[in-house]
Fold each of these.
Amino acid sequence: MTKTKSISILGCGWLGLPLAKAFVQKKWHVRGSTTHADKLPLLKENHIEPYLIRVSPDQHDDMDAAFFDSEVFIINIPPGRKNPDVAKRYPQQMQSVARAAAHGNVKKILFVSSTSVYPNLNREVTEDDAHMPDKENGRAVWQAEQVFLNHPNFQTTIVRFCGLYGPERNPGRFLAGKTLKTSGDAGVNLIHLQDCLAIIIRLVEEGVWGEVFNACADAHPSKSTYYQKVAREAGLDAPVFTHEEPESFKLVNSHKLKKRLNYQFVHPDPLKST
């Protein structure tokens, strides 16, 4: 009899919950965590073994050991924009997770990262362009990546998502009604939820470990074109770009991911799937 494959997903929010549901559909035994006790019944209703996990920087032995009983472990908790002293706190939180995972049965980790690790280089960026970032949030994410990439107990794959959009997450609200002192000519870097789910599942099921990948839609429409369009479609005031200041940018290249997985984006152009 074939043993049921098990996976633990740390962070079952906007991305993590549909991801957990997708693995349940594929007959995996799924353990999922939330930081809100009132969400535990929702996980259980969806056949996800529920855990209440709050990760603190100095946490050692008080995370439920049973949550770390899966061989495959997905980490999907971003640092948070309001996290005080984020560049120090978030890597420490991930060190706590790494300690707990090392004491469990975890052998393979997929860390959901961000393209915030790249500075604005005014060109295309690839996986090799991530060094110690200038911005605090990016620095926190980059340091957290190193916790798992350098850990001897795990095979770790990093997937760096750009801006996420999809159901109940309309990017139009981000800049709606604002006046921005730039041209808006810089391209956007976005990825649809459906592609995020498909990419993670493919990486796990095909056993692609020990790698770092960017994940971003092929097309990079200009900020002015994209945000004005999606704001209007959402019934919001479109942002105004005044052309007063030059704008630095980066265009995230996902060629490595597409080649390794032979992957074609379900939503290659954000303008056509808003």
Amino acid sequence: MPEDLVDILYSCIDEIGREKIRIDITSDIAASKKYCKEIIAKCASKLGSDADDETLGTLCEATLHFMLTVSLLPSERKVNVRGADLDVVIPSQKMLDRQPEKALVIQVIKQGGDTAKVKHAESVQPHRNNIWTVSAKPVKAGHKNYHLGPGNFSYPEIILDINTFLVDRGVKGLKLLHGQ
């Protein structure tokens, strides 16, 4: 990820308050939608109208990584499974290997025709509904696609939907005990 994009992302996160985001989301996962919208909007504003799909896709990916961390949802990032490069596996590569019906693969599409990434996911995840894509603009990859544009599967919904996926399959996330 370009250094300036990292700086922009984390300056926007710091403007909102990293600890505030973490506390709000761990107490109510639905707050992730608001924070995803706010972070992306602030960053897009700082990037300006020059931001291309690749830059915005990278921003979505970095924001997803941050949100997965603060929401305490189990995930592994940038893994290679049987020769397939995967951007995000939820909850883990071990679950994908043993019980693929309980694992989710998320591929970030930074250029419209990047179908190789989808093929990689399909080669290791036999359950088509458990392959999701993230992109700046809607892509027709035959899988649930979270994007910044209007319409179904708006990007800010992704953390809520990941949480629902895990709950529906009985997969327990990481839980930390907070002092009272």
Amino acid sequence: MRILMLLLVLLTGCATAPVAVQRPPFVDAPFTFNGRIAVKYGMHHDATDIHWQHRGYDEITLLGPLGYTAARIYRDANGATLDDAYGKHYAAPDAESLMEKTLGWSVPLTDLRYWLVATPSPEGEFKIETNANGQLEMLTQQGWEIRYVRYTTTKANALPLELNMSRMGFDVTLKIDGWEAQ
């Protein structure tokens, strides 16, 4: 009985309060999340788990159905690389052309790193619509329409949990399972 009580005390002591996840305080702040991405274009449909880490560089891991790394994309100021599950290594001056060449589709990673945290990219004009909570509901920029479906909380500075992007018959749904606090 004493062991059970000790175990309960230890487990209770290890419990932590949930971290309030909110939008970073400055543009292009670091972030990390895990989620799922689905891409539809024409008759093609692709879906995969995704882990994205942004820290002045971007490291995006696309995972296969059993959790193996299907592709790892790395992007920084010097260019982009992609390593696939077969050990092939690809390089290009930018991630978008590299993804198109190797995956058959691409998303605008340069802008997407801002859109993910419900902020317009500093490049180019944009149009926004907000909801009653002051959260971004729709963003139009660079020819993309981004709809924010769900957020972590109802606060104005909450991070999105689901967004849908579309442009000329190319649709992307991103569902974020968890943001890591920075």
Amino acid sequence: MRFLLKANWDIDAGNAAAREGSLGRTVESILAEQEPEAAYFIADKGTRTALIVLDLADASQIPAVAEPWFLAFNARVEITPAMVPDDLARAGPSIEQAVERYG
């Protein structure tokens, strides 16, 4: 199942990593372990932010993908289930059933 991981880095932790030159290496190391489908880096509400798309087999993998961001950057992490168009297409019948029952 796909998840969108959003990690907002603590300002002080991100600045410290940038100053010591480890920011890029740390991010590369985390991404090498997590093997994301996609990774984007933005500024969100004034903080360095990673947006990572991951395909996880089981919810028990969530700590393994969240902890590196917590530990390396004192990040706030949000993980949200996500769908690609094929997933949404397969969900069509259940959406139609919900419309029939509750719509």
